[in-house]
């Protein structure tokens, strides 16, 4: 019968990762490993305090279903045992990996894809002074897409500084819920003039009803406002795109279902991540196929990555090796 092990790991970042809610200097992740004879499946997830998660709570959630995991439960059964979040994500992705290795096929084949193509990811610029943001942008100006964090109305100067430092890069602005509706309406034309392609989660989740019917000059993307299919209907008429993250959705199983339903409702897709290693990014590579925006740069922000890691050069990510995942 399967055997479950769980680890709490820390991975140092190359620089402080700063958003409107705070900063961190390391990625702290949970790795779930399910072994069954010669086969081993792994999944990685990030507990996120914004959603009421701690390392202790996620480890406790995983521990609560240990008997069912070690009795051989399926991914479908798991969906009803744990809520969407980091704990279910770690286990769900481990079960995908284990199923692929048992079957001797790649995980994307199990997901109904004939192949997995490389994708180009955004690179995130942390919130900071315009000069510091411009310096980071200048060092990464050859990347095709930069995502910059803002924390309030005064940060339009930072956006302008990044645009000047990286004139050829596509720009995404991520407010992480830091604006109100009046500020968004004032800033949106300025974003458009700076050729910003997307504004991610401008208003606080639960306070974005004012977006209904608003014709923004820059497309808007839901992040904190959407976790699973349960929130999708509320995003209609407010956002043009949704950001799907495995940690929010509670794993690849729900994320794939969410992506299919979102496409059916006319949403564009952004595939995002928490700051984590290549093991967390690998399952999201399946989800990222054909997405309008891919933001799987977690490993690019670290001092070092897990080995083997996702191969690639610059912002290009290659499909994972079987030894990493899937």
Protein architecture, described:
The protein is an alpha/beta fold and 326 residues long. It is 33% helix and 23% strand. Strand 7, helix 8 (181-193) and strand 8 (196-200) form a beta-alpha-beta unit.
Condensed summary:
This protein has 326 residues and is an alpha/beta fold. The protein contains twelve helices and 13 strands.
Which structural traits does this protein have?
single chain; 326 residues; alpha/beta; Enolase-like, domain 1; TIM Barrel; eight-stranded parallel β-sheet; three-stranded antiparallel β-sheet; 12 helices
Mean pLDDT: 97
Order of helices and strands: EEEHHHHHEEHEHEHEEHEHHEHEE
Per CATH, the architecture of the largest domain is: Alpha-Beta Barrel
* Proportion of residues in extended strands: 15-25%
Poorly predicted spans = none
State the CATH superfamily name of the largest domain: Enolase-like C-terminal domain
Within the largest sheet, what's the order of strands? Answer: 5-6-7-8-9-10-11-12
Number of strands: 13
Outline? globular
- The Cα radius of gyration reads 19 Å
Helical percent range? 25-40%
Quickly name the level 1 CATH class of the largest domain: Alpha Beta
Question: According to CATH, what is the topology of the largest domain?
Answer: TIM Barrel
Distance between the amino and carboxyl termini: 20 Å
Query: How many strands, which pairing sense, and closed or not: the largest β-sheet?
Result: 8 strands, parallel
Number of domains: 2
Total helices: the number is 12
Determine the structural class based on helices, strands and strand pairing: alpha/beta
